[in-house]
Specification:
Length: about 110
């Protein structure tokens, strides 16, 4: 008697292939950095580097999904995300020096 028979293990059954799911925890943590809806400053805008990180992490997730059999839709989404990541805002607008000077005068 073999080990397989003794332990009731079926022979030659293919193991099910599980698709790999991308880990989106980094994407969601980066998304929290660019979410300005919870801040008290109505003029707050996200930093360009944080915006780029959101686009890149999402395109990486789509890229791993594409390896599992995705189609041309994922290719289009990846291209769009990478184009948006390559052109984030050049600078974050702030307030004028006059505004800051006015805040410190008694």
């Amino acid at each position: 008697m073999s080990y397989e028979v003794e332990h009731n293990i079926p022979k030659n059954e293919p193991t099910p292939q599980h698709t790999r799911r991308p880990d989106l925890s980094t994407f969601f943590s980066n998304l929290e950095l660019v979410n300005t809806s919870t801040t008290q400053n109505s003029n707050a805008i996200p930093m360009p580097a944080d915006m780029r990180a959101v686009f890149i992490t999402l395109s990486d997730a789509f890229r791993s999904m594409r390896q599992d059999g995705g189609g041309s839709l994922l290719d289009t989404l990846i291209e769009t995300l990478e184009a948006d990541a390559d052109s984030p805002p050049k600078e974050v607008e702030g307030v004028s020096d006059g505004f800051l000077d006015g805040m410190w005068k008694p």
